[in-house]
Amino acid sequence: MGTRRISVTVDGVAYSDDVEPRTLLVHYLRERLGKTGTVVGCDTSNCGACTVHLDGRSVKSCSVLAVQVDGSDVTTIEGLAQNGELHPVQQAFHENHGLQCGYCTPGMIMQAVDLLKDNPDPSDAEIREGLEGNLCRCTGYQNIVKSVKAAAGAGSVSAGVAGGAA
Amino acid sequence: MIPAAFDYESPASIDEALQVIAGAGDREVKVLAGGQSLIPVLRLRMNAPDLVVDLGRIAELRGVRDDGDAIAIGAMTTHDDVTREPLIRQHALLLSLAAQTVADPQVRHRGTFGGSLAHADPAADMPAPALALGAEFVIAGPSGRRTVGASDFFTDLFTTAIGEGELLVEVRVPKHTGWGAHYEKFNHVAHTWSIVGVAAAVRVEGGTIAEAKVGLTNMGLVPIRATAVEQALVGQPATADAIRAAAQNADQGTNPMSDASADEHYRRHLAKVLTGRAVLAAVG
Amino acid sequence: MTAVDETTGAKEFGQSRRRKEDARLITGRTKWTDNIVLPGMAHLAMVRSPVASGTIASIDVADAKASPGVLGVWTGADLDAEQGDLPCAWAITPDMKHPRRPAVAAGRVKFAGEIVAVIAARSAAEARDAADKVLVDYDDLPVVLDMNEAIKEGTPLVHEELGTNVNAVWVFNSGEAGTGGNVDEAIEAARADADSIVLERTFRQQRLVPAFMEPRSTVVDPTGEQLTVWSATQVPHIARFLLAVVLGISESKVRFIAPDVGGGFGGKIHLSPEEVATVLIARKLGKPVKYTETRSESIQSAHHGRDQIQRITMAAKKDGTVTGLKVDLLADMGAYLGLVTPGVPVLGAFMFNAIYKIPAYEFKCTNVFTNKVLTDAYRGAGRPEATYAIERMMDTLANELGVDPLALREKNWIKHEEFPFTTVCGLTYDSGNYEAATSRAVELFDYEGLRREQAERRARKDPIQLGIGISTFTEMCGLAPSRVLGSLNYGAGGWEYSAIRMLPTGKVEVLTGASAHGQGHETAFSQIVADQLGVPFEDVEILHGDTQITHKGLDTYGSRSLVVGGIAIVKAAEKVIEKAKPIAAHLLEANVADIEFDSGKFSVAGTDKGVTIQEVALATFAAHNYPEGIEPSIDADATFDPENFSYPHGTHLCATEIDTETGKVTIRKYVCVDDIGTVVNPLIAEGQVHGGLAQGIAQALWEEARHDESGTLTTATFVDYTLPTAADMPFFTTDMTETASTSNPLGVKGVGEAGTIASTPAVINAVVDALRPWGVDDIQMPTTAQRVWKAIQGKEFDASVGAKDTRDGSHEAAPGNGAPLWSGNESGGAQ
Prior knowledge:
The complex is a heterotrimer.
Chain A: E1 4-10, E2 13-19, H1 25-32, E3 51-54, E4 57-60, E5 73-75, H2 88-95, H3 105-118, H4 124-130, H5 142-151
Parallel strand pairs in A: 1-5
Antiparallel strand pairs in A: 1-2, 3-4, 3-5
Helix pairs in contact in A: 2-5
Chain B: E1 7-9, H1 14-22, E2 29-32, H2 38-43, E3 51-54, E4 64-67, E5 70-74, H3 79-84, H4 86-91, H5 93-100, H6 105-110, H7 113-119, H8 127-132, E6 136-141, E7 144-149, H9 150-153, E8 154-156, E9 159-160, E10 167-174, E11 180-186, E12 196-205, E13 208-217, E14 224-225, H10 227-233, H11 240-247, H12 264-283
Chain C: H1 22-25, E1 42-48, E2 54-60, H2 62-66, E3 70-75, H3 76-83, E4 108-109, E5 115-121, H4 124-131, E6 135-140, H5 147-150, E7 166-173, H6 174-177, H7 183-191, E8 196-208, E9 217-223, E10 226-231, H8 236-247, E11 254-257, H9 273-285, E12 289-292, H10 295-301, E13 305-317, E14 322-334, H11 344-349, E15 361-369, H12 383-401, H13 405-412, E16 421-422, E17 428-429, H14 434-445, H15 447-459, E18 464-474, H16 482-487, E19 496-502, E20 508-512, H17 521-533, E21 540-543, H18 561-588, E22 595-598, E23 601-604, E24 610-612, H19 613-622, E25 636-640, E26 649-659, E27 665-675, H20 682-701, E28 733-737, H21 754-771, H22 785-796
Helix pairs in contact in C: 12-21, 17-18, 18-19, 20-21
């Protein structure tokens, strides 16, 4: 059970490494590349804390083998800000208190970026459904939804009005 | 957690994949499609194969093409592609709608149509619509290809007609152009598996249901075609009362399990209610 | 204090400052324990028992030891001489039964998930590979799971050496305490009185998993005699003390660090078996060691919460006046006692009377051992259980009497002019205004409009039925006055510590013994210090979570960080100012008595002469020119011990829609108006409310830890332990009313647990309210669609049970009370 050589670009840097086939992408990112911004929250792919972008689409890096990404391009939370400027979704999470302990936040932000790429002007219900693969235990999701809505530039969500998307 | 160690091959063609599997001898082989079920199983060490054969590099397994009276969907086409692909939306809308309900966006980006069908989880959302639409399963093996009808494909819990050394390579779905469709999924919270799901495709002519196809998720060890409902619907007006009456037959011929999420009695009831809702939504 | 206080110049208090913490959290630069990598670090894997009760017949570690990369394998027997006994800090009664709790089981296992062997290897993968090669034979023993069974004579024992499955029986009786009447007399009188009613109900608090998002992780670096421990903990100070006690080592040799910690909710209040095992192995190997649990390990072995059976007896006049309340609990400890396990029900003992003037009260809890993982604090700890029971009872009484449940509450609650009010439990509620919070909530909710719609839906037998649930809660938090904790035999005090270091550049370092794990202390505490010292918010650095930085502290739990820790900071700041005054006077060539301090400036009364606190800090550092006889320092520290608890309160209103065809419950509207006193940072406070609501609602609707008959936890992953997603959660309408706390100088009350405490009964009251036309009086949590549907089916065949509108003022004959006692399930057979 040897290793395989993979070449992968992560956050704009090309890497070439020998990995065990069983190495999960998230462990490759964390342990080989030191990309500890991407975290592990579960072992069943429910929580989404490990979400990264693989060739431009969001995936759970705990459910991808490192050998599967040979030749691919990966973006993590650490590659989101450009030239010292926060990504608008990062900025929106800060402005709208879309995080508390912050453990789910990298995955939540990466999924929100994917969601907005797919649907630049989502409704509250579409945001909630688009984040159904990401668990948060701190925020009750309200300010996360508000953050994504704000990042979409669609105005602020009416947090004070109940009876919205459930 | 970290999977137990395994060897890994990523063949570039179907033929090469079949050779790799054939050459594995006594070693236990697992075929890796999108990996969204397999990799969590490996992480929990509920399975520890000697060799994982990754189909991800095989270009011919991906994509959707028009194949006359059917559309042909490559086994490695992702759920996300199934939801978006115009050919599928036009000719097999039910599949597209069902695929939208699978797990979550990240899983749909990786998980594949063929992988889900071959895994044959009774709570998975894609088998019932595939069954309802009468899909044909193209299976490649050392001695060539064979096609298995939907009614013969799902044979038992997590078991299909795919034999040892074989691969599901394509699914041919007869065109249902112009049919209304709906997949009604019922679960506890959004990220959990279906307690019961109902896949319905209906062709309405002048206010009357001309044809109906209904498949049930998690009402037995395998997906089940609700033929009694289908028969009861044909010729009926596309009204709520008529549809609800026909849906009362939904649990006929089913064998639902009792488990932590629901007992048999409740599942039978849900099947009727959800079938009514699915068909009603499908007729628009 | 108002949001911007003109008289004191408070500029930060009341501002929704964006959090300082966010910068690292949103960019992936957070320091989680599992991120820490040290040279030569070994990794641990645990072998855990799959059986809930048994003896270890044999353990074969030979293959594991020979596995590649393995540095060592240790069983419980190998470690037993040095691993000590994991402590419980709360002996609630003098005769409490306290089993020994080893970090690694030796000989006997008592719950499924207990550690039986530890592997150290070069990598985590190799450690896990080796763990799979450890062969353990167990001789199964009878499993005790059900509390009612556990306390019966002749039931097998979880701990044979204790001779009983009862951990302790703890009683509070207002008659005996002299704080109220005799409840048995009150109940007897009510039974004998035609104008009174006695209700008996039994409620089940299901087992819950705290489910913090960051799995627990520990890194230990032994350097010589020193041990540095990084751990995902809420309680680095308590853990250091306990580690020293358990292992018999000097506390001064241990540095405990809580780096960034990803949530806790009570679930990280402990010295865990895993922490002790990691320390032991690091000492043995003489090199750094890391252990990070998997999610399924976390759910199986980190402590759970709730798990009580509550038998409640309430006596009332038929005009709605409650005359007595008797509470009889069974509380599941699980197999062992954690830090405060036996005390969790006691934390609820003083809260069943809630906001009501109840003249006679008794609380009794019987703590029970079972072969399950231990329970301990989970957000609210005791108080959600109490609030649930009383708020369910108030709705039940209203229904029985045919009066509006809000009106019934108002009839019984403490009026705002009656504060301070000493309750039947002897607590003195310092402030509150239940009328104001309720009035605002009713307005935001459109209570009347929703009641109208409910009546219409009932009238037409709509398949979607509407229910309205109420919860007018209070709680006691800000744990806690040390003398009170002492009187309850808790093993420690409840003070908090802070120190302020004035740097020569005018920047300020603030040390706090509170240990944040998502609460936003760095931001809120900076706001407090900025106002107190008149320095810019940006110039304040909050240092926490490291016992070598803040040598003492009692950490974060029980909504205590602001109301205890925040006040300690205020006290330290006051000392800084007092120490700075003589130096300022010296610099200004004035008398100390003439020095005034305002908005960061020391000035001479009646003149325009002044010097800033930054200038004083620099002058003090230089120390070239300061008064004789004092030290050249304006640094100060303070330890604050509160004199009272904090009593936030609020009114929560929930409207649920029930799909009667499937039983699915959907929250249509949720309104809460909380009174948490004055508010430092409304943005953060609202966030705390949101998160609290989500956890309380999740108990009502979705979450439950379940075991099969062999004691295996069948909800051991996030596939089966069903946390809600964004798609499941409703929007909350939140607002605040404000009555300042009179027991601290800022007027603040705790907020961390309020949402969780209040929301669960609001939701269940709404579900039951929707189902009343079927005669449903209760339903077991979580109210899964199947449970709701079955509750209706059971009643459909009973034509005599009709709808009952709680707004209907007419008195129907109260039905006989047939609730089976201690069954834990009298909700119409719904499972």
